[in-house]
């Protein structure tokens, strides 16, 4: 089943637009968990505690690679596929390079890690994304209007009367989405810009990081981002869920926090 189809089923089955980000920080793991095994155990327990409440999981590759824990990431994704088969995995890698190298990055994401979707930087243009787009069943999620304070440095530059991020959204929706497998990253911290993107991409899924630790506003995201069917969003939160408790009850606390976020989001839904 394709990423977009799996995502759509998860939205409805779990009644959830929540995406849990898996960003293990070595200094924040609960007592007794450390090293590659600790990272795996921590993330696995978070996954098992929240799988019934989410539409996707989003492991961030740097958090594993920096700790030489790529093996834990491989095991974690395998665990999600085995135990929670209806929940798609988005590998947050933000790759972007010339085609001959991008081909290897596509093997990394879809072969080595068996991710259902990957985040990519569109800055090098379509030929840098083609090796990913060729996997019609996989999701290709392109940076458009990122959540960070410096996101506007380039993304808001005037580009023929429109900001660059709108040109990015238009080009991807019109020219890159032949297989219907594209999605965009639009930060929760810029809800009005998110609404401008929604207006040009129709029902294309949007990955929306920035709720929780970055202070994004759920009501504003829902107002500007949901589709007429009340979905279309993967609203992502990492630290606020992962570190809801630093004690042995971390998984229960993650469950509670993810469920609160799910219910809050759903309270602003027009339809589901
Ligand atoms: O624009 C972007 C793109 C990606 N991210 C990633 O999402 C999470 C956010 O973590 P929080 O703890 O919920 O703030 C992290 O992995 C980022 O690399 C983003 O924040 N903004």
From TrEMBL:
GO terms for molecular function: orotidine-5'-phosphate decarboxylase activity. It is an enzyme of class 4 (lyase). It comes from the Bacteria. Its EC number is 4.1.1.23. GO terms for biological process: 'de novo' pyrimidine nucleobase biosynthetic process; 'de novo' UMP biosynthetic process. Pathway: Pyrimidine metabolism; UMP biosynthesis via de novo pathway; UMP from orotate: step 2/2. The keyword Cell wall biogenesis/degradation does not apply. It catalyses: orotidine 5'-phosphate + H(+) = UMP + CO2. Residues 17-254 form the Orotidine 5'-phosphate decarboxylase domain. The keyword Oxidoreductase does not apply. The active site is at residue 94. Keywords: Decarboxylase, Lyase, Pyrimidine biosynthesis. Gene3D superfamilies: Aldolase class I. Belongs to the OMP decarboxylase family. Type 2 subfamily. This is Orotidine 5'-phosphate decarboxylase.
């Amino acid at each position: 089943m394709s990423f977009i189809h799996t995502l759509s089923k998860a939205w409805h089955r779990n009644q959830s637009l929540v995406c849990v980000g898996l960003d293990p920080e070595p200094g924040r793991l609960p007592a007794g968990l450390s090293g590659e095994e600790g990272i795996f155990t921590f993330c696995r327990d978070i996954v098992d505690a929240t799988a019934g409440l989410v539409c996707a999981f989003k492991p961030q590759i740097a958090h594993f690679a920096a700790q030489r824990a790529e093996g834990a990431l491989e095991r974690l994704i395998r665990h999600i596929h085995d135990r929670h088969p209806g929940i798609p995995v988005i590998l947050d890698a933000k790759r972007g390079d010339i085609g001959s190298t991008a081909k290897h990055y596509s093997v990394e994401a879809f072969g080595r890690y068996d991710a259902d979707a990957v985040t990519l930087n569109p800055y090098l243009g379509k030929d840098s994304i083609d090796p990913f787009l060729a996997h019609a069943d996989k999701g290709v999620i392109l940076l458009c209007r990122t959540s960070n304070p410096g996101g506007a440095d380039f993304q808001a530059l005037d580009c023929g009367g429109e900001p660059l991020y709108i040109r990015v959204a238009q080009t991807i929706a019109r020219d890159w989405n032949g297989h219907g497998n594209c999605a965009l990253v639009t930060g929760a911290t810029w809800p009005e810009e998110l609404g401008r993107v929604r207006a040009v991409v129709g029902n294309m899924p949007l990955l929306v990081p920035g709720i929780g630790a970055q202070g994004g506003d759920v009501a504003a995201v829902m107002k500007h981002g949901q589709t007429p069917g009340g979905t279309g969003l993967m609203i992502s939160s990492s630290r606020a869920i992962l570190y809801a408790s630093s004690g042995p009850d971390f998984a229960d606390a993650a469950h509670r926090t993810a469920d609160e976020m799910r219910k809050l989001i759903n309270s602003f839904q027009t339809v589901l």
